[in-house]
């Protein structure tokens, strides 16, 4: 440890451990630039029967529902969203085919993570009104149009870049990573990707804004509550490291500010438990015999008779 490090009171990053992390970040940024979906294309020359950005947000919410229902790893969701956004930004998709394309992207994400699920159950639960063969045919079309698996480069998601950022903080000081719960961070990233105002930005920008928001909410609040100068120093140090990452990833300051504002708005609504404008509507399907029995017993419960209120004069006598 040199004299400058002793004055700062914290160890310098290990250059040997930082080198592979820097290589992973450089590779992820290269893949991000190659396969970045441009969601603004969806709104260009939009026909009434074509998929809009609001419909896209609803489809991502369905992917979140399916991920939770089948209890698959969160990487399945992030991979499926990347496939869906790439497909919608490169192809004009009619609204009636969106549900089939959504579960097809989920199927591709499941295959990429080597997870086994029941395809018949996937089609039934999603209520997409398509068959398993339709889903498989749509999945083949998506793979053929995107061509993301033809090269040696691995498809990079926003979650992958977020984990690289956490590795950077871990290399600086392992105590920093302990302050973040990875599963909670990934869940909040899911919420952000379900909003097109946040999903529009680069994956590296969105992941960095999420980390910046969490640092400001956790460490700044803790430093103010404890009135600790040391915590304020750590907070400033982390903000400086975020600035270094911003320069390395070549993120414009205007993009970072706009993305941080959208991230703050969405996460505050999520923390306040505001109801999402998009949700998965489940419909109960009954057999003809069950439905018939339900009709015969519809009037089984009778309404109660109306209770007559006492007259006003009688109530006055009681008070007297």
Automatic annotation (TrEMBL):
Signal peptide: none annotated. Coiled coil: none annotated. Residues 51-148 form the Cyclin N-terminal domain. InterPro entries: Cyclin-like_sf, Cyclin_N. It comes from the Eukaryota. This is Cyclin N-terminal domain-containing protein. It comes from Phaedon cochleariae. The lineage of its organism: Eukaryota, Metazoa, Ecdysozoa, Arthropoda, Hexapoda.
């Amino acid at each position: 440890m040199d004299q400058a490090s002793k004055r700062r009171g914290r160890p310098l990053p290990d250059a040997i451990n930082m080198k592979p992390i820097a290589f992973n970040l450089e590779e992820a940024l290269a893949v991000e630039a190659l396969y970045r979906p441009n969601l603004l294309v969806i709104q260009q020359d939009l026909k009434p029967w074509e998929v809009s950005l609001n419909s896209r947000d609803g489809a991502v919410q369905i992917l979140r529902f399916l991920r939770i229902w089948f209890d698959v790893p969160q990487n399945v969701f992030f991979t499926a969203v990347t496939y869906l956004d790439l497909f919608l930004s490169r192809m004009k998709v009619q609204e009636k085919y969106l549900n089939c394309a959504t579960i097809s992207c989920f199927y591709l994400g499941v295959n990429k993570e080597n997870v086994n699920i029941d395809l018949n159950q996937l089609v039934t639960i999603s209520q997409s009104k398509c068959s398993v063969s339709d889903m498989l045919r749509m999945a083949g079309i998506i793979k053929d149009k995107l061509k993301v698996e033809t090269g040696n480069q691995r498809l990079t998601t926003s979650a992958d870049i977020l984990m690289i950022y956490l590795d950077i903080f871990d290399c600086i000081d392992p105590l920093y990573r302990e302050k973040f719960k990875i599963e909670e961070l990934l869940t909040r990233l899911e919420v952000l990707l379900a909003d097109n105002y946040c999903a529009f930005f680069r994956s590296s920008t969105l992941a960095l804004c999420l980390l910046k928001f969490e640092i400001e909410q956790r460490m700044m609040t803790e430093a103010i509550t404890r009135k600790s100068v040391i915590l304020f120093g750590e907070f400033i140090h982390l903000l400086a490291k975020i600035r270094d990452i911003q320069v390395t990833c070549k993120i414009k300051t205007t993009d970072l500010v706009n993305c941080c504002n959208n991230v703050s708005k969405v996460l505050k609504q999520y923390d306040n438990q505001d109801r999402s404008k998009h949700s998965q509507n489940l419909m109960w399907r009954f057999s003809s015999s069950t439905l018939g029995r339900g009709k015969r017993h519809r009037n089984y419960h009778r309404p109660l008779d109306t209770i007559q209120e006492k007259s006003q004069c009688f109530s006055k006598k009681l008070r007297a």
